[in-house]
Amino acid sequence: MEEQILKEGFRELFPDRSPPEFEVKYSSKVSRYGGTLKYFISENRIRVVFGNGLTSVSSQIKKGLFQTLLSRMMKRKGKPTLEMEVYSSFIKNLHLSIPKNKVDPELKRSFERVNERYFNGLIEMPNLSFEGKSSIRLANYDFQEDRIRVSSIFRGAPEDILDYLMYHELLHKHLKFSSSNGKNYYHTRRFRIMEKKFENSEEMERRLQEYIKSKRRSWKDLLFGRHN
What is the pTM of this model? Predict the structure, then answer.
């Protein structure tokens, strides 16, 4: 049944080509509502791996994800199909059904400050957690878990620096993303314009970079000892 749906999806994108054979699996090793494709040329077969969260969703959503992945793999250019738009809408609205049961108190206070000041209190609180100690990947918003993750190097950071990060990630939650040719675009022109509306944004960016450098220096001191 699923293989037939994928063949239909293939024909809609590439009507002049014969569809290959398909192998469909579900796995916890890919994102819960995402998937991967692998093409075995010698066998003319595509392995499709869907995340476990997609086992009970409609065939239209699965078909849309498959077409999105296939467009990306084949570097197809053109308008998205109806099913691709349905899948995109599904991801954008996942937050409505996801439990909010992982909320760090410090990040909650930051969220409340930023939400009230910049979004008139209209943003629904996502899951909020400190994770990892990266000084490169500072924070991210995960649409599939409705979660903002912030590097633990910002635990106890000055409020305005934490709020600056929070604002950036809440913009992702608020503006979602745009899609074209099977790719999602998060830092759109509108995003960049709104990003600069944070008070003293250029100064905050400078202070953020200084804070990161200070954390890197402190790690070196711990690893190699402080030299006078």
Answer: 0.77
